[in-house]
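Lab notebook, bench 4. The sequencing result for the construct came back, and we need a structural model before the next group meeting so we can plan mutations. Quick request posted to the team channel:

Model the 3D structure of this chain.
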Amino acid sequence: MNKIRIGILVGGRSGEHEVSLMSSKSVLSVLDPNKYEITEIGITHEGQWWSGENTWQKFQDGTLDGLSRVLLVPEPGQTILYKHQDKKIEALSELDVIFPVLHGTFGEDGTLQGFLEMADIAYVGAGVLGSSVGMDKALFKDVMRANDIPVVDWVIASRQHAEKDLQNLIGEAEGLGPYPFFIKPANLGSSVGITKCKNRSDLMEGILEACRFDRRILIERGVENAREIEISVLGNEFPRASIPGEIRPADEFYSYNAKYYDDRSELIIPAPLPQETITKMQEIAIRTYKAIDCAGMARVDFLVDGKTNQIFMNEVNTIPGFTKISMYPKLWEASGLKYGDLVDELINLAFERKAERDRSERKFSKE
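Done. Here's the predicted structure in token form:
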């Protein structure tokens, strides 16, 4: 049987570059070399594509020694990775499918997905629409409200708005209700640039911090004694939801440090919730997934008010953390799907989605 020729994209032009390296290491470790012909492709912080022997390890070590600059041509029928050097281009390897193990901008926000659509190659995960809506926290909230899915109240602002009229923006934020507030870059994940603000001084600092990472920022009302519940979703047209898990972070919220460095954070699987609540959250998770036209996978994150037990949709991660101890694969493991089988299924879903795209006619005739 011919091996599936798969390109694994790691790194990326994003503040979540290092998180991608953590996730991709785990994915690479479970790909069966008897089933897959694997090409590792590293993307630098500057957006350059490199490939060669031990690409992941060299990116981890911070060196490009022995690697070659590569490119993929965005033209149907040309799913070949090319090496380019000294103004010469030569074919390096042909690819059947791309697995973008990338997080954040230029990997999870629809830009890369649009490029891969133009190249007409199968790829793992959500398409352009699902990726872009899932990434933009403000637009995502608008879509949730349009679908009667409860979200926390928010204010959206541009970087220029914050720079030119900071006092007015602070007034808008304080109009949401009492402190605390959370400030986030609108298009980033892994809690990069997020600040919990307990007073006006925190709010000013948090706005400036979020503006470092995006041209649009989001200010949200805090949820009292919030419980953080996550559900993994898998599939294309007919997705299914995992059992829920609960995050009990080491910090005041699930910060970057609490996610990746502080081993005191707890992942409780299954989350201690009544079955009625679990069923309701699974149903909301699937509704959310379908509402943004997601595909392949997503981790759906909820906030539950610790006082009223009210459920709020927080966000969707269309390329969630993928280390073996990340919540997305751990929830599926607890639901009966092992990590290696999960990766295989995601690759199969990529081919299924590509076959569905290919059914659409690209020419129109009146006859």
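The chain has a mean pLDDT of 91.
Will bring this to the meeting.
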